[in-house]
UniProtKB/TrEMBL annotation:
One of its GO terms (biological process) is ribosomal small subunit assembly. It comes from Ramlibacter algicola. Residues 87-91 are annotated as: G2. Residues 108-111 are annotated as: G3. The keyword Iron does not apply. This is GTPase Era. It is found in: Cytoplasm; Cell membrane. SUPFAM superfamilies: P-loop containing nucleoside triphosphate hydrolases, Prokaryotic type KH domain (KH-domain type II). Residues 199-201 are annotated as: G5. The gene is era. Residues 1-29 have a biased composition (Basic residues). CDD domains: Era, KH-II_Era. Residues 53-220 form the Era-type G domain. GO terms for cellular component: cytosol; plasma membrane.
Amino acid sequence: MRDRRRRHRRARHRRLAPRGRAGRRRRRAAGAEGPVQVSETPIETPMPGEPQRCGLVAIVGKPNVGKSTLLNALVGQKISITSRKAQTTRHRITGIRTVGAVQYVFVDTPGFQTRHSTALNRSLNKAVLGAVGDVDVVLVVVEAGKLAPADEKVIQLLKPGIPAVLVANKLDQVNRRAELAPWLQDVQARHAFAEYVPMSAKNAKDIERLFAIVGKFLPEQPWFYEEDELTDRSEKFLASETVREKLFRLTGEELPYTSTVVIDKFDEEPSPKHGRFIRIAATIIVERDGHKAIVIGDKGERLKRIGTEARQELEKLLGAKVFIELWVKVRTGWADDEARVRSFGYE
Ligand SMILES: Nc1nc2c(ncn2[C@@H]2O[C@H](COP(=O)(O)OP(=O)(O)OP(=O)(O)O)[C@@H](O)[C@H]2O)c(=O)[nH]1
């Protein structure tokens, strides 16, 4: 036990500049941002003598099938933003969960784009391709009872030799359960997945079952992360994701997905009163003047609400007093401009 703790302490020191194969895989999968521990979740202790297992799990699927909802349920904490609007996930995000002796390192991916070839969409697709080629198991998320051409395109990306599990999500929305069996048989006839799991990302029992299924595919090796770490994304990244989620939630269908958030300032200041005090300045980038008006809302009401909701959520997430200043800027055609896409943080 003491040995394991010592190893973990060493791992903690390595976290900022991990070396070796594990570190390389981790960096490739996660992007090069600083680590963060965002909250405490109850962790099951491993059985004595049980060897540690650990591996990367990619979550892929066309937009809006519930990938981010699934990741958040698996990690037990909101790491990836979710909304009713398709294409809200722009980055590969790792969520980490240690259950018993098994550590799952989840890689979330953007919805694979098949329709438009903008610089933004090319960057999103590159992230998907990178994710499926370098993991221990891939979860392919589709909506239960549906296998659209866009789903087939995602399935075509799978690499031979890497096991893939079909997650038929949103089972709760299937009215006629009897029709699901023939659908599953049809899918089985067409695609050789290692497992077929009809489930709902919103059902805790299904999530538990998925852990057991996925765990079988992870190799015996020491954990990559501390047992209570949930993500290795930086707090700055979580701040931009939180503002972006509030932006999409509060603007609904009015705002196109080519709107983004750039964090201009993320400063932690000493505060005897609050412990941690974080000052954030963020810019919401939109394509047109009309979109800017939508974001700002009547007398600035909407922008104020986006800021308030983001602040409240970040205060809980970061365990700090947070002050947020929001700006809105128009940058026409940014999603078509490779340099701009890169400057806003996409690879
Ligand atoms: N009824 C039901 N709704 C779900 C389930 N899983 C996800 N959803 C909903 O489906 C919508 C899309 O979920 P997301 O998790 O944002 O989907 P995504 O695949 O990450 O979407 P992109 O970011 O566009 O790729 C949200 O409104 C979720 O609440 C489920 O099991 N049942």
